[in-house]
Amino acid sequence: MTTPAGWYDDGSGNRRWWDGQQWTEHVVTGRPAPGGESTASEPTVQEPTASEPAPEAPVPAVPITPPADAEPAPFVPPYTLAGQMPAPAATTSPAGTTYPAYGGYPAASWPVAPSPQPATGVPVVGIIGLVAVVIGVVCACFPVIAIAGWALLAVGFVMSLISLFLRGRKWPGITGLVVAVIGAVLAAAVSFLVLATSSIAENGDSPFAAPGDRPSSEGDSSTGREDPSTIEGAEMVPFEELEVGDCLPLVEYTDDDVIFDLPVVPCEQPHTDEIYLIFDVEDGEFPGDDALGVTASDGCLAAFESYVGVSYDVSELDYYYYQPTKSSWNHASDRTVQCILFSYEEVTGTLKGANY
Hints:
By secondary structure, the protein is α+β, with helices and mostly antiparallel strands. 28% of the residues lie in helices and 17% in strands. It has helices spanning 124-140, 146-163, 171-204, 222-225, 289-308, 326-331; strands at residues 6-9, 15-18, 23-28, 91-92, 98-99, 209-211, 235-238, 247-248, 261-264, 271-280, 318-324, 336-347.
């Protein structure tokens, strides 16, 4: 509600004229006497200054007597001397923080520390890790420098991983990790391929099987000097496909010959050799050529009589064998011995049960 115009205590011990809107400059110095009369017979009114227009004569306030049954309303003096002018509006600080005005004083603009901005640079560790990964992948694909390549690849992977925990952009670290994983798989595949190729090449340069002490043929041996694949009716058969009963023409090999297969001819065709036993020796480390030769010879001798029909001591036939080489033993798991009958004269038909 609005307070009607009148003389009111302004809180400083004086009475001041309230025009219904705000305090005026008219002040009565002194307090009312205890009996309700003022100590001053007349209110002392301050004259307005020349710059201000003369106010109208104040009208004495007429007290209003409230009804007996009405509760007296508390009087709220309009103490707004210090704040008759509207308080300045709240201002906004340059940092964007607004502080409200208080007690008629201008709003304060306090400096506020700006929030940290995310880093936009690229960590050097991530770049170095990515470069190390790329170089490592390339080097790991070459057998000569494969060890250095794998080491560099591992270093690049670790540096790329560390860069993810540093402030800055993460793309070098993520790219380095992806390239490291894919490159490791690729390098491993290339290394495996090179190793397999080298192993095949190594096996190809060594004989698959070596002949034992083969008896020397009597008479003309010109047939043995020709290419076995050119013998009429001959079919070159690998050692792993040979079978008992296969007939072989006369072929004389030297110690320098590389043997991977043997010529097989129909037994009705003149021939000198025939396979009569194929068996595997005990597995394990390569025992050596001499020890393996003894094992092969003993095995072939034990089966001679049961195939020919007479013992080796009285037979006109002889035997020899093919045994694994160190290369075929280690790289091809070859453990097979082929026992071969030998006739000093060409024969037709099988030698099984020849009884001579």
